[in-house]
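Q: Hi! First time doing this. I have a protein sequence and I read that you can turn it into a structure. Is that right? Here it is:
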Amino acid sequence: MAFETKKERHDASNGLACLIQALVGEYLTIDLQNESSITGFVKEVDGYMNISLEKAQFEDYNGNQYFYDTLYIRGRNIRFFHIPKEISVKETIIKYLKKKFHKHSKNTTTALQRYRSKKLKQYQEETRGAIAEMKRNTQKS
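A: Yes, that's right. Below is the predicted 3D structure, encoded as structure tokens:
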């Protein structure tokens, strides 16, 4: 789940997948499409909401329970997430997006600013040189 495509990053940052990605390390209950439920610690989440859980407890629709050290769930099989009450959804999403995407946009902006300021300084030096040349020519005549 480490390799992310542009589409996956876009979907993750513009959908609710970023909420689940922000809950990595939290204890979460997930209801599946087939009336089963899984409870465990979120280990990894990708942009398509495929989830890897640790210390997972799987309960099928008959009530049978199975325990797994690690369990992988495809995003299309998920029906519902039970988010713990102590977690603020809005604050969690904002905090995650700032942490995940802030550095990238800041570096791009500063690189662009450095390029523009360098070009501006070059233009200013050329203009100063042209003005100095004009002053010298008018003093000679």
